[in-house]
């Protein structure tokens, strides 16, 4: 009966080892299990290890003391727009960054479409082909292009297509600027996360007596003034 209990106990411990609750080194081999009271003590130790291992809770990460890594924030911001802000846990900056990106992309698309329309109108007006008259959609109601005002409309279409082309290119540079600012902001924000902003940082202004060693007159050798002291 005792040997059967021993075999059953070893089987239970092996199953626990297979599930990861106990390691193989923590199981007592079958040929080394003692008898009687020593065997009961061995089983008690095994069960105690099993309970301690099963009830062990992984300690929670202390987010209040967490500080971001500036290099990691920089690389995340370079690879993913807004990734550095997410890593720094500054989620309120994401609408500003993505709003800037979307605004620049919309401006680029709209200015590019206007540039194409006015560029095509200018070409149609210059080719003298009556079948190509895309410029008519830009004319006011009842207005027509005649030889008398043709040069004026050419100048208008040329200036407008150049204007929208400049605005399209400017939108692209602003987009690059928003991207660069997001990267710089992520890096600087991570660097400043370790900056001391405790109450020890203070500026005090207090009266003091200033000594004037160059004067031989004892009455004018000292003067009253203000002294600034910075504690950090």
Mean pLDDT: 75
Helical percentage: 55-70%
Task: Please give the radius of gyration in angstroms.
Answer: 40 Å
Class based on secondary structure composition and strand pairing: mainly alpha
Which descriptor suits the 3D outline?
Answer: elongated
Uncertain regions: pLDDT < 50 for 5+ in a row?
19-28
Profile the largest sheet: 2 strands, antiparallel
Description of the structure:
The structure is a single chain. The chain is mainly alpha-helical and about 230 residues long. About 55% of the residues lie in helices and about 10% in strands. It is built from six helices and two strands, in the order ααααααββ. It has a two-stranded antiparallel sheet with strand order 1-2. α3 packs antiparallel against α6. The longest helix has about 45 residues. The two termini are about 75 Å apart. About 5% of the residues have low confidence.
Keywords, please?
single chain; elongated; 232 residues; mainly alpha
